[in-house]
Amino acid sequence: MVTQQRLLEVFVALADTMVAEFDVIDLMHTLTETTVELLDADAAGLMLADQRGHLQVITATSHQIQELEALELLHGEGPCVDCFRTGEAVTNVPIAEAGQRWPRFQPAAERAGYSTVHALPMRLRDQVIGSMNVYRVKPGRLSETDIALGRGLADMATIGLLQERAVSERAVLAEQLQGALNSRIVIEQAKGVLAERLNLDPDASFAVMRRFARGSGRPLLTVASHVINGTLTLRP
Q1: Which has the closest alpha carbon to 29: 225, 209, 217, 236?
Q2: 57 φ, ψ (degrees, to nearest 5)
Q3: Burial profile 23-59: b = 16 or more Cβ within 10 angstroms, e = fewer
Q4: Which range, of 13-27, 58-72, 83-97, averages the lowest pLDDT?
Q5: What's the half-sphere exposure (Cβ side, CA atoms, 13 Å) at 54?
Q6: What is the DSSP letter of 141?
Q7: DSSP one-letter string for 62-84
Q8: Three-state DSSP state, 125
Q9: Is residue 121 within a helix (H) or strand (E), and if so which, with residue range?
Q10: Residue among 49, 55, 84, 81 nearest 174 (CA)
Q11: Pairwise CA distance, residues 24 & 160, whole Å
């Protein structure tokens, strides 16, 4: 059971990221992590649209989920893709029964051990800028309250991305989202470099970078760049 105090803490944490020059990548990771926690889920992955309106994976709670999200994009099918196309949530879909709907995504998700999937839109009014998948291992449905909570978290993060910018200024928004996607590429490279240096898996190496970025007050992209060029030494 999620307490009112914990809900307040989560929304304050999301609001705290929405200051000037906030770190988009960190905001998206905060969104996926808190959604997993509050919905009693097991994993989440998030996609944003690039300048051409094409979805790109921007964050996931694990490397396994990142691969599942990439598979959705490769084949153009899956809950996140459907959610983005329609702008509507896709909820309480048993993966075992989704083979006809998503013939390539379904067996991969089932092999990964998940029983249920949901997708929530990153949406403000009629503008959809991305979508978020939420996975559960144990069978069971999300209640209407849980779905409303998940949508509220996604809506708040979307507003954070669009704050102080007119929604009609699509070029400005596209530039910001493209910057986030470009940052993800650098961060992925840094994860690989750090994983090799410290003999860690990619998820653990990302956690090391993110912890250092938060502790030092530096943007995650800056930390990743220094890891790649060898000017920053990090420890587990």
Answers
A1: 209
A2: -70, 130
A3: bbbbbbbbbbebbbebbebbbbbbbbbbeeeebbbbb
A4: 13-27
A5: 8
A6: P
A7: SHHHHHHHHHHHHHT-SHHHHHH
A8: coil
A9: strand 116-124
A10: 49
A11: 9
Q: Which residue type occupies 114?
A: Y
Q: What are the structure tokens assigned to 113, written together? A: 């051990």
- Look at residue 98 in the predicted model and tell me its pLDDT: 96
CA dihedral 200→204→210→213, nearest 10 degrees, is -30
d(CA 236, CA 222): 18
User: Exposed, middle or buried: residue 178 (CB in 10 Å: 0-12, 13-18, 19+)?
Assistant: middle
| pLDDT at position 232 | 85
Tokens of 180: 């986030």
| Identity of residue 221 | L
Task: Please compute the mean of the pLDDT values over residues 87-97 and round it to a whole number.
Answer: 95
> Whole-model pTM?
0.72
Distances (CA, A) of 110 to 59, 97, 140: 21, 10, 15
pLDDT tens readout for residues 35-60: 999 998 999 999 998 877 889 999 99
Query: Could you give the 3-state DSSP secondary structure of residue 120?
Result: strand
> How many CA atoms, within 13 angstroms, populate the side-chain half-sphere of residue 186?
19
Length of the chain: 236
Considering only CA atoms, which of 55, 51, 84, 49 is closest in space to residue 71? 55
Q: Which residues pair with 135 in a beta bridge?
A: 43, 117
Give the DSSP H/E element, type plus range, for residue 219.
Answer: none
